[in-house]
Q: What sequence folds into this?
């Protein structure tokens, strides 16, 4: 009887650990979705990098900007930051937009101004420049 209970406990532990897999030592933010990439020689080719299988796992959740998790269809993710340096761009809480993007208010301010600059050249012609790309 004890052996059966122990077996059931181990089985439950194994199933629960596989249902929400994570890559050891890798934060969700340091992973990328590679579910669209075929496996070749026990690795994956992603943007010029070869990702070994031990840096991948099936995820059944997506992590939101506030750190909470949302259940999603199972997909393969890879810990890309173990292979190349990653830089995290952080966003203050009061600047977070509903789509999990960050805003410093610059975009809203630019919408209020005319982004075109007219310059009169020495020969009298007027050139118009778009401030965000031309200058």
A:
């Amino acid at each position: 009887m004890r052996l059966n209970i122990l077996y059931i406990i181990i089985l439950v532990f194994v199933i629960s650990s596989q249902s929400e897999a994570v890559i050891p030592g890798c934060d969700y933010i340091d992973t990328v979705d590679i579910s669209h990439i075929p496996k070749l020689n026990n690795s994956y080719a992603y943007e010029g990098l070869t990702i070994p299988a031990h840096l991948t796992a099936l995820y059944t959740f997506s992590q939101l900007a506030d750190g909470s998790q949302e259940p999603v269809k199972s997909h393969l993710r890879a810990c890309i930051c173990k292979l190349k340096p990653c830089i995290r761009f952080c966003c203050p809480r009061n600047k977070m937009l509903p789509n999990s993007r960050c805003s410093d208010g610059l975009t809203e301010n630019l919408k209020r101004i005319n982004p075109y600059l007219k310059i009169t050249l020495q020969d009298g012609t007027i050139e118009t420049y778009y401030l965000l790309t031309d200058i």
